[in-house]
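COMPLEX REQUEST
Ligand: magnesium ion
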Amino acid sequence: MLELKNVMVNYGVIPALKSISFKVEEGEIVTLIGANGAGKSTILKAICGLIKLKGGAITYQGDTISGMGAHLIIRRGISQVPEGRGIFANLTVEENLGLGAYVRKDKAEINRNLKVVYDRFPRLFERRKQVGGTLSGGEQQMLAIGRALMAAPKLLLLDEPSMGLAPLVVKEIFKIIKEINQTGTTILLVEQNARMALSVANRGYVMETGQIISHGTARELRDNEDVKKAYLGH
Ligand SMILES: Nc1ncnc2c1ncn2[C@@H]1O[C@H](COP(=O)(O)OP(=O)(O)OP(=O)(O)O)[C@@H](O)[C@H]1O
Ligand SMILES: [Mg+2]
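STATUS: Structure written out below.
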């Protein structure tokens, strides 16, 4: 479904992605794990067309999307939940969700998507008139995911959904991620919480300073001694 081939990105003269190659097949949950500054968010931005590649290519459903505008990439069915969530604090839950549908014109379709999101997140329905800034961290993460789902994506990119959340809330969010996947959405999940990420993912890639240093099935990575030492805390 998605393939990165020798993707290189620089910030100024500093390389952030050195030569990244990986694939996501339709229906999978694939996770990218790695420490701060490894380049995980940069990969998601590159996929969404938010930063230019210095080299390599990104293909999606057989077409090259690197070099295309971000709005065109969203229209093809790729949505991102950005790091830090990007909720508009002064807009209501429902207004925030509406912004996620901006590539859609059909009002009936938007309402259908809104219903799908409210069914998935009853808590957002209860709080639909509340402004985003007053939601709890977990609710804000749900809103960010809900907003991305308003574009009815085929591929959902999640950037550290567990960040700053209590363990129980993290569990709840990961359960929802799994459910979203089971209803037919392919997921690329960026996480520092390797343990949780590998508990839901089919496969994973481990990043270090702009490179992929290891990959395998979730089970292989959980059993990998280097991964255990560096990311699973034993
Ligand atoms: N706009 C920018 N300008 C210059 N350097 C940047 C910019 N954005 C990111 N970088 C650098 O690129 C590298 C990769 O950053 P990136 O945000 O992709 O890492 P990350 O793996 O997502 O880290 P984290 O887990 O902390 O979110 C870092 O060294 C970072 O400082
Ligand atoms: Mg990041």
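REMARKS: The chain has two domains: 23-50+69-77+153-234, 87-152. The CA atoms of residues 116 and 126 lie 14 Å apart.
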